[in-house]
Design brief:
The chain is α/β, with parallel strands linked by helices and 553 residues long. 34% of the residues lie in helices and 20% in strands. Strands 1, 2, 3, 4, 5, 6, 14, 15, 16, 17, 18 and 19 form a twelve-stranded mixed beta sheet that branches. A hairpin with a 2-residue loop joins strand 5 and strand 6.
Length: 553
Amino acid sequence: MTDIEIAQKAQKLHIRDVAAKAGIDEQDLEYYGNDKAKINLSVLKRDRKDGKLILVTAITPTPAGEGKTTTTIGLADGLNKIGKNTMVALREPSLGPVFGVKGGAAGGGYAQVVPMEDINLHFTGDFHAIGAANNLLAAMIDNHIYQGNSLRIDPRRITWRRCVDMNDRQLRFVVDGLGGKANGTPREDGYDITVASEIMAVLCLASDLVDLKQRLADIIIGYNYDGEPVKAGSLNAQGAMAALLKDAIKPNLVQTLEGNPALVHGGPFANIAHGCNSVIATRMALKLGDYTVTEAGFGADLGAEKFLDIKCRVAGLKPSAVVLVATIRALKMHGGLLKTELGHEDVDALVKGMPNLIRHYKNITEVYKLPCVVAINKFPTDTEAEIKALKEEGEKHGMNIVLSTVWADGGNGAIELAEKVVELCEKDNDFTFSYNTEDTIEKKIKDIVTKIYGGAGVEIAPEAKKQIRMLKKYGYDKLPVCMAKTQYSFSDNAKLLGAPEGFTVSVRNIKVSAGARFIVALTGEIMTMPGLPKVPAAENIDIDENGVISGLF
């Protein structure tokens, strides 16, 4: 059966029963039908010791797939199976990738969160609320200029863009305000995908409604004619924006296929933003469970780096263990094989691809000083010789390696992994960050590139240097750095697979997300509005006369 067929055949519990498993009172629920609900923020105030936090990350992604979300869900089910009260906290999928090339983000096989169709399509409307708040601010900016522009906003230096939750390259750069004086001031504009909006990052890093409103007020929308930053608070936009987000800030409760509670909330892109579910959802999960399993987007150089250096720093979180997901198929691609060649045994290619796994593992254990277990997401095409070679190579570097079969077996396929994770969680660790926020922006970027990516250095474009000087002038230089980089390589060149060395990362643009309270460094050709592929996934998605959806994956 396909993923969606497995999900549709699942016998789901009523969401009140899932809530009861998590110790959530019915009075704290806001129902969205029988199988999903929002949770009131009052749950955060419970006087209960936080549980252990487990981060699931992965090697550098390839078209062969790694199964990070599937492993995250399967591990949570496995921990529950061995008697551990466990919550799982995940990101919400964006409609753009669902209809594009990546597909959904609700897990796969027998390790999924359900209702899978709802989670991938609209869900509880959080992303629509974020888009509405983003575009309200855009409308207020242009209206302010139209009504006399008392703030002296320079239309040529407006940095706030509109957004839509769809991959639509046609909207990357637009000219609007055309058609005469009554229709506004003509200017260059553009759209980002909703998950790249700073509103998404703000929502996911806010601690409560009061903090959310302050962060919204701090957003820089552009610059005036004197070159000084103008904030959303100067337009008195924060109150209305927060009102639009009053429900979106509440975490969403769903369930795994095995009926275990799952929080799915927020979803900033990991190659553009910080790539983690909301701080509120993570904190709530820690209040509800003895163990919380969460994930970070893409490979560990992007998702885990930002989870650890940004989210953990901002929220005061300390992981107890890290699970690094890899597949033999993906490692063989890093070793030089084409996707069409992965079904055949090739130990040499596997060994050649191992440096990618080794670098990620050493980053977690040596840079961040966290205990780590490697979860090999097993495929039917994996041979005994390949598994043996992988374990032998891993053992040379002190790796804990466990096979996982959660796609086929659900929680039962993660029993060994769960037991290893519990073992690691019992050990103290000396978690540290990869850079010091008090250092210069240039030093922070260089630390990420040299310590995490394995690069030789950084080349900062003249325009980016100018932007750094401006950020220092206005006191933003001590914020964490969010690297916007391709997910397909340690470098900023998507074609450099494996574990490249000696490369230089080129930073072409530096901007501040003052509401999210981090600096964004854009590298290579990274874009904030993806496009659809030649054959988008949307062409295979359908619905029949009974309302049954097909083609989602």
